[in-house]
Amino acid sequence: MSDIRHSLLRRDALSAAKEVLYHLDIYFSSQLQNAPLPMVDKGPVELLEEFVFQVPKERGAQPKRLNSLQELQLLEIMCNYFQEQTKDSVRQILFSSLFSPQGNKADDSRMSLLGKLVSMAVAVCRIPVLECAASWLQRTPVVYCVRLARALVDDYCCLVPGSVQTLKQTFSASPRFCCQFVTSVTTLYDLSSDGLIPPLDLLETIVSWILEDPRLVLITFLNTPIAANLPIGFLELTPLTGLIRWCVKAPLAYRRRKRPPLANGHLPNKALKEPAAAAGLERDSHLLYSKLHLSVLQVLLMLQGHLTEKNLYGRLGLVLFDHMVPLVEEINRLADELNPLNASQEIELALDRLAQALQVAMASGALLCTRDDLRTLCSRLPHNNLLQLVISGPVPQSPHAALPPGFYPHIHTPPLGYGAVPAHPAAHPALPTHPGHTFISGMPFPFRPIR
Fold first, then answer.
1. Does 212 have pLDDT greater than 80?
2. Which tens digits make up the pLDDT trace of 268-303?
3. How far apart are CA 403 and CA 185, in angstroms?
4. 352-405 pLDDT, tens digit each
5. What's the pLDDT score for residue 23?
6. Own/partner pairs for 190-196, CB < 8 Å, 24+ apart?
7. Which residue from 417, 242, 429, 253 is spatially nearest to 318, judged by alpha carbons?
8. Is the dihedral of CA 413, 415, 416, 422 positive or negative?
9. Contact, 286 vs 254, CB < 8 A?
10. pLDDT for position 235
11. pLDDT per residue as tens digits for the range 121-158
12. How many beta carbons lie within 10 A of that of residue 409, not counting itself?
């Protein structure tokens, strides 16, 4: 690597960046012939930091700066390289060497260039770059994933009107990237403040993708070997939790955003009449969230068959109970913050959607918890008839013969990562059944989408 470095030092910044990609392509191709998953050592990463991200190796040295035109040329060079390299393994290892965070001063330059590269790949439909970015999102800590997501949202949903149509076309080019992108943006835009409500163009794009093919939500889960213990601090296997959060919190978050400030205890005159344009946008968003909520419920119903096929039914929760806890706390806080007399409809809608999502997620095996857990979790929420039915009513019987009636899956099949404990129906006392209600095994859960 030292010989390569000396030759690169004699070149200008753009030529050196182009040549380092050429040398490392040869290096990694050779490494992959000897080992299917070679370790990336420090040398190649240092070369990339010095000659691509312009971080000098020597202390006090002045970094070479690429002007805007040179940076655009470098992005074109990188796009063309990943497009022309036919071996996916070489593409993936070089992309990882380029953009995997190292926890050093080069990370800011690394993330800035990554955002511009993926944005260009979306614009010119460079599928290999999008596929590499999908893998990067899957194996990179979430704090970096949301930075990339924000850069793409800024480029296609905020800065240039109408450019979101280009982003929408990515669905047909790389569904895998779209799945990871949805997971990232639902993590980023958690509706915890007015600034973290997803832009309308972004919401419309995601809803259109999922309406076209609901299986998009499950692509990463269906194509990923499942480890016993999923890593902490990374994106989830599906965006289901984030999408549920969007649908449930949206009525309250939008109500909070349009709540006018009080002046001496009275509404200001300009807040008494809402502009028609803003009202129209709000109606559009409410309709989109309604469609999204129905799609999420349909995906959850679809999920049971996939979990069974992978022998994960009752063993792997894709909607984690631990993530439902802060969601319920946020709903409770928002309900208290908003005046119940003025926001009763929004509170009722949020709780109806929460109840439906919890019921269908439990019935499909996506959410692993008991009714006692659920009752404790929801005990402080405002009263809601549908939610009360879910936490205290009868449980739909599972079509799995191994599970006795009245129990949720994980009670009988230990979650992944725990020792197997044999379950026998006779070992559990029969639960009292709810009078007057009968659930027929195999019948889909009857839900009515809340509009």
1. yes
2. 554 445 555 566 677 889 999 999 999 999 999 999
3. 37
4. 999 999 999 999 999 999 889 999 999 999 999 999 999 886 655 555 544 444
5. 87
6. 190/242, 190/245, 191/245, 191/246, 191/249, 191/250, 191/253, 192/330, 194/253, 194/256, 194/257
7. 242
8. negative
9. yes
10. 95
11. 999 999 999 999 999 999 999 999 999 999 999 999 99
12. 25
pLDDT of residue 442: 42
**pLDDT surpassing 80 at residue 96:** yes
**For residue 424, which amino acid is it?**
H
Give the residue from 251, 361, 229, 341 showing the smallest Cα distance to 296: 361
> What mean pLDDT, rounded, does the chain reach?
83
- Structure tokens, 250: 């949206």
Rg of the chain, C-alpha, whole Å? 26
> What's the per-residue H, E or C state across the chain?
CHHHHHHHHCCCHHHHHHHHHHHHHHHHHHHHHHCCCCCCCHHHHHHHHHHCCCCCCCCCCCCCCCCHHHHHHHHHHHHHHHHHCCCHHHHHHHHHHHHCCCCCCCHHHHHHHHHHHHHHHHHHCCHHHHHHHHHHHHHCEHHHHHHHHHHHHHHHHHHCCCCHHHHHCHHHHCHHHHHHHHHHHHHHCCCCCHHHCCCHHHHHHHHHHHHHCHHHHHHHHHCCCCCCCCCCCECCCCCHHHHHHHHHHHHHHHHHHHCCCCECCECCHHHCCCCHHHHHHHHHHHHHHHHHHHHHHHHHHHHHHHHHHCCCCCCCCCCCHHHHHHHHHHHHHHHHHCCCCCCHHHHHHHHHHHHHHHHHHHHHCCCCCCHHHHHHHCCCCCCCHHHHHHHHCCCCCCCCCCCCCCCCHHHCCCCCCCCCCCCCHHHCCCCCCCCCCCCCCCCCCCCCCCC
Task: Find, among 286, 275, 252, the residue nearest to 381 by Cα.
Answer: 252
- Token digits of residue 362: 């439990």
Question: Which token pair is 401?
Answer: 């013969």
Residue 98: its pLDDT value, please? 93
Tell me the three-class secondary structure of 334-392, residue by residue.
HHHHCCCCCCHHHHHHHHHHHHHHHHHHHHHCCCCCCHHHHHHHCCCCCCCHHHHHHHH
- Please provide residue 11's backbone torsions phi and psi, each rounded to the nearest 5 degrees: -105, 165
The count of residues in the chain is 451
Q: How far apart are CA 353 and CA 101, in angstroms?
A: 38
Q: Dump pLDDT digits (tens) for 423-446.
A: 433 334 443 433 333 333 344 444
